[in-house]
Amino acid sequence: MTTWLDIADDDPFGVDHLPIGVVTHGDRGRFAAVRIGGYALDLSGAGDYARLFSGETLDPFLAAGPLAWRGVRSLVTAWLTDEAHRGEVEPRLVRLDETTAVLGFSVADYVDFYASEHHATNVGRIFRPDGNPLTPNWKHLPVGYHGRAGTVVVSGTEVRRPHGQARDPDGAIRFGPSERLDLEAELAFVVGTGSAPGQAVPVGAFTDHVYGVCLLNDWSARDIQAWEYVPLGPFLGKSFATSIAGWITPLDALSRAWVAPPPRNPEPLPYLDDTATPAALDIQVEVRLNGTVISRPPFTAMYWTPAQLLAHMTVNGAHLRAGDVFASGTVSGSQPDQRGCLLELTWNGTAPITLLDGTTRAFLHDGDEVVITAAAPGPHGPIGLAEVRGRIVPAASATPG
Ligand code: MN
């Protein structure tokens, strides 16, 4: 498909993509938009669907379900590919660099998984060098935890270094700013259609409930996390901030990205069987720290697929709501340059990495900026997932001691 708009045929935000978000603009205020090339296309005039975008959030649109999602996509595709619509559509295009993306929907619940075998194995080796790196449950169920929905922030939001309790190597308990602040490169899945309480959502119903995908950075204070996580899992070491991209890529844009999942041994229980459908996503992630590419994790290498994560998350009868977000866990591949966090890349700080400016990092410094991008195969060249960007700012000065 081609568009009358002045964008390159291989633009990663071309007419095959059409991610959705909410932006603010000096004159126009806040509005829901589709990102097309270097523009944000205002959806408030979206014909029969305009009511879904009248509230300046994506909440009604997400809740409206797959028929409405596809209806809006068809409408926008027609607008952009048929010259006849040019006159009515052009006034609704705003230059992207004149807008700021905001958090476009109410994050209902936020769950984070741990679905990369390479990540889980590396972390197990680092924290439990004498034991089996994978816990006995790991290949039977997707391990996850409930995070803090209220501290999910949009890409571009500054991330303040958190305070917390940690135990020093000599056993002393310390309180202060985290000294081991890390990033985690992840993909997040945004739920639109809810489900009924008590009803599990099967693997095969994934696309009925999930609207789309976006990049996520699960900032992690490793020193706080290491001291608090036994026995109930991550808590304050992660809940201070989680960044998500400002634009959600619809699953409908990823039809060329589905691939076969990796072999599983042992075979998971029937409710996690995803062999009937190509369930893994071929998405190539890239992590930059102050402009230096520090990792290229392949999402294809994930052990558990997104549909399995959703099936597991609801198998106990916990129902879905519009705006639920579940993330994959750190995406890491088999190679050292495919590790999706500094904990793995620097092996818990023992092997610092060198950036292009010659400085080294074990963990994040104040002022450091992390940018995560990704690409997936599309019908006419790569689909580029919108970046998630965040800069670390110094810890607050006033602290409870
Ligand atoms: Mn995580």
Q: Would you give an account of this structure?
A:
- The protein has 401 residues and is an alpha+beta fold.
- The protein has two domains: 20-102, SH3 type barrels; 110-393, Fumarylacetoacetate hydrolase, domain 2 (Alpha-Beta Complex).
- The chain has helices at 59-64, 66-81, 86-89, 117-127, 206-209, 222-228, 306-314, 342-345; strands at residues 20-25, 29-36, 39-42, 93-95, 99-102, 110-113, 144-146, 152-154, 159-160, 163-167, 173-177, 181-182, 185-191, 210-217, 220-221, 242-244, 247-250, 258-259, 280-281, 284-289, 292-295, 325-327, 353-354, 360-361, 369-376, 383-393.
- Strands 1, 2, 3, 4, 5, 6, 7, 8, 13, 14, 16, 17 and 22 form a 13-stranded mixed beta sheet that branches. A five-stranded mixed beta sheet has the order 9-26-25-20-21, with no helix packed on it.
- The protein is globular.
Write out key terms for the chains shown:
13-stranded mixed beta sheet; 2 domains; Fumarylacetoacetate hydrolase, domain 2; alpha+beta; five-stranded mixed beta sheet; 401 residues; SH3 type barrels; globular; binds manganese (II) ion
**List of distinct ligands in this structure:** manganese (II) ion
Counted beta strands: 26
Dominant shape: globular
The low-pLDDT segments are none
Task: Report the portion of residues in β strands.
Answer: 25-35%
Assembly context of the chains: single chain
Second-tier CATH architecture of the largest domain: Alpha-Beta Complex
